[in-house]
Write a structure and sequence with these properties.
Strand order of the largest sheet: 3-5-1-12-9-10-11
Strand content: 15-25%
CATH architecture of one domain: 2-Layer Sandwich
Mean pLDDT: 96
Distance between the termini: 62 Å
Number of helices: 20
CATH class of one domain: Alpha Beta
CATH topology of one domain: Aldehyde Oxidoreductase, domain 4
Number of strands: 26
Largest sheet: 7 strands, mixed
Radius of gyration: 27 Å
Length: 757
């Protein structure tokens, strides 16, 4: 598919119409997961482990079942024992056996908050009382929380049958290291031998949560004929269908999933927690079951992203040419394998055209909740280490850090250390725009520092379906299978309107359920506007071709003699006849006499998603007495290919920056000596609020991706990649001390200042 001409030719794409779902959301009329109710529904609750690691000796639910109002109790014994098998559909790596055991512990609990049993009762009060009546006998086991400690030979083992994958020779003893990831290009030793300057350091990040506002929620029904339905908020209702069907042994055709609005996900809702439990309880009780997590449960029992410990070493010539990079990255996976260490190893150094690089990663389990995806999974963590080291290299060379990056920047034709050769990319343009921005040359005051960092995400396409139908009055319906998180309904309507040549107000876009549209991969990985947009555009193009045929039938001429322009069929030149233009509405009105309903459904497996690059500048002021950091100014520059709806693109960039700033300054999972999380709530787990931040300047660089009809590339992941390092570099410059560990909370900064003396 070719790129559509000049931006000036576009009439809808690139404009800023009102978001179609916006009014319902700001007025409170939108229906989220917890808003669904059915007659006779039961309240479902989960009993969770108080221990980070323990063997389950016995579960006795007799007292709970005797309580009036309790209709069903389940444990792992009521669910199929799933064999080891790689999962599909979700955003991150997952094994079905592990997924099943994460939803409900079998044999052992592996983290505080791990589900042990679940029940359904007629009221919430009865359900809560019944939880206390389930008697569980545990054999408490030693636990390990820290990733480096979990890798040691004598660490408590979570899985006696886990041997490190991708290691030769195959290990003879089990460990908590699930797998080794390795990328190598060139001769690293020779590269370091050529270096005039070498910097190295160890960098640490803590686990952080996506902190979506809406907790996980699900409502499930099971009919007597085996037909089941789930209503849920998620980033992929086809994912829910596939996972729940597998975990409960249900045929996919017997399970329908209806998407609710989603109150945030950021990758954390690309996996199931409550959905299989709600349906299992509905099957057992014969009544609808609704389950909603509390905020504390969200923190203790859903997936944050990894914390990590990373070593980076960079060598360069005195004029700033990088000669070699080596790195080792150790990522917490939580209780089951599947951390985003591989994309971290891929993305951390992808901004640089390197001859010699070697990156090794380790996926490590420990007694924490199983991690889930979080915007550009792994990339912000790896880039915190790499971009901090690059900044330190610039300091050591006495070189402008943007110039250093420009000297080593990848461009079209550069081959990455993980094997991909870049197509058309906009990294050099992003760096140029960043250096030219007034922010970069603005003066700083006392105790203030400026940091810059860049980031990369490869972006993905994948499987998507879309349908475009012409209604009887000429209005247009667009149905897709992608949950709308970042304004995709508006983007789909805009692309369809552009192809059809009609105002976007004449198009209505919906998110269809699993029985109403073809299979669609999750909303994640910055894929929806690209892949689902491609399906939408192709469906709209099919509709235009059909409309031209219908007009030809009405005029009794050849379809080749009909053009489509500005929402109307027109004769293709004087020889086609002197017919007046036929508007879309006029053709729709006669659809019954020209072949019937007008519409098209298209399913694609979209390839060619363009990589994305961004650069962020951050100014901070650090109070040397308290260690408190104030973010003074923030600018985020990003190649977006083409902004379909610029306001939503700017919002994505600003939102990613805010989340990254919180990750850098405040956010962390804090565990006590008993292996229990101490800050499982927004009072103690602090995310940035509006008063914490300046206005964030989002700068859109448009280097079109020729593999999409409108030149776009995904934008949702890149903006969370640079902030961790940008903030850390700014703080390091403000206090004159290189900071290696996140979060940069006041106690951490005060300790660094005190240690310096």
């Amino acid at each position: 598919m070719t790129y559509v001409g000049n931006k000036a030719d576009l009439k809808v794409v690139g404009t800023r119409p009102v978001r179609p779902d916006g009014v319902d959301k700001v007025t409170g009329r939108a229906t989220f997961g917890a808003d669904f109710n059915l007659p006779g529904q039961l309240v479902g609750k989960v009993l969770r482990s108080p221990h980070p690691h323990a063997r389950i000796i016995k579960i006795d639910a007799s007292r709970a079942l005797a309580l009036t109002g309790v209709k069903a109790v389940i444990s792992a014994e009521d669910l199929p024992n799933i064999a080891s098998e790689e999962a599909f559909v979700g955003e991150g790596p997952m094994n079905f056996r592990d997924l099943s055991r994460n939803c409900m512990a079998r044999d052992k609990v592996l983290y505080e908050g791990h589900a042990v049993a679940a029940l359904a009762a007629t009221t919430e009060a009865i359900a809560n009382a019944a939880l206390a009546l389930i008697d569980v006998t545990y054999e408490v086991l030693p636990f390990v929380i820290d990733v480096n400690e979990a890798m040691q030979p004598g660490a408590p083992l979570l899985d006696d049958n886990m041997y490190t994958a991708n290691v030769e020779p195959k290990p003879t003893a089990p460990s908590n290291i699930a797998k080794r990831v390795h990328f190598k290009k060139g001769d690293v030793a020779a590269g370091f031998a050529k270096a005039d300057v070498i910097v190295s350091g160890t960098y640490n990040t803590e686990a952080v949560h996506q902190a979506y506002i809406e907790p996980h929620a699900a409502l499930a029904t099971a009919n007597a004929d085996g037909q089941c339905t789930i209503w849920a908020s998620s980033q992929g209702h086809f994912m829910i269908r596939a996972y729940v069907a597998k975990l409960l042994g249900i045929e996919i055709a017997n399970l329908r999933v209806i998407p609710a609005e989603i109150g945030g996900g950021f990758g954390g809702k690309t996996v199931v927690y409550l959905e299989p439990l709600a349906l299992a309880l509905a099957q057992k009780s014969g009544r609808p079951v609704k389950m909603v997590m509390s905020r504390e449960e969200v923190f203790r029992a859903s997936g944050p992203t990894s914390g990590a410990s990373m070593d980076v070493k960079i060598g360069a010539t005195k004029d700033g040419i990088i000669t070699a990079i080596s790195s080792e990255m150790r990522f917490q996976a939580g209780a089951f394998p599947g951390s985003p260490v591989q994309p971290a190893c891929m993305c951390a150094f992808a901004m640089y055209d390197l001859e010699n690089v070697e990156v090794t990663g380790y996926d490590v389990i420990s007694n924490r909740p199983k991690v889930a995806a979080y915007r550009a999974p792994g990339a912000p963590i790896g880039s915190f280490a790499s971009e901090s080291a690059i900044d330190e290299l610039a300091d050591k060379l006495g070189m402008d850090p943007i110039v250093l990056r420009q000297k080593n920047a990848v461009n079209q034709g550069s081959k990455t250390h993980y094997g991909v050769t870049f197509p058309e990319i906009g990294y050099e343009q992003v760096l140029a725009a960043t250096k030219a921005h007034p922010h970069w040359s603005a003066p700083l005051g006392p105790n203030q520092g400026r940091g810059v960092a860049t980031g990369f995400w490869f972006n993905i396409g994948g499987e998507s379906s879309a349908a475009v139908h012409i209604n009887e009055d000429g209005s247009v319906s667009v149905a897709t299978g992608s949950p709308d998180i970042g304004g995709s309904r508006a983007s789909m309507a805009m692309m369809a309107a552009e192809v059809l040549g009609i105002p976007v107000d004449n198009v209505r876009a919906i998110v269809a359920d699993t029985a109403s549209i073809g299979f669609t991969h999750v909303t994640g990985g910055s894929r929806v506007t690209y892949a689902t947009g491609m399906a939408t555009v192709q469906a709209a193009q099919n509709v235009v071709a059909d409309l031209k045929k219908r007009a030809a039938m009405i005029w009794d001429i050849s379809p080749d003699a009909v053009d489509w322009k500005d929402g109307e069929a027109v004769p293709a030149g004087a020889n086609a006849g002197g017919f007046d233009p036929l508007p879309l509405a006029a053709i729709a009105l006669k659809a019954g006499r020209t072949g019937g309903p007008i519409g098209s459904e298209v399913s694609v497996n979209a390839q060619g998603a363009g990589p994305g690059f961004g650069a962020h500048i951050c100014d901070v002021e650090v109070d040397p007495e308290t260690g408190y950091v104030t973010v003074l100014r923030y600018t985020a520059v990003q190649d977006v290919g083409r902004a379909i709806h610029p306001s939503y693109v700017e919002g994505q960039i600003q939102g990613g920056a805010v989340q990254g700033i919180g990750w850098a300054l405040n956010e962390e999972y804090i565990y006590n000596a008993k292996g229990s999380m101490d800050n499982a709530g927004f009072l103690d787990y602090r995310v940035p609020v509006a008063s914490d931040l300046p206005m964030i300047d989002a700068v859109l660089v448009e280097v079109p991706n020729p593999r999409h009809p409108f030149g776009l590339r995904g934008v949702g992941e890149v903006p969370i990649v640079p902030p961790l390092a940008a903030v850390a570099n700014a703080v390091s410059h403000a206090i004159g001390i290189r900071m290696h560990d996140l979060p940069l909370s006041p106690p951490t900064i005060c300790a660094a200042i005190d240690a310096k003396g």
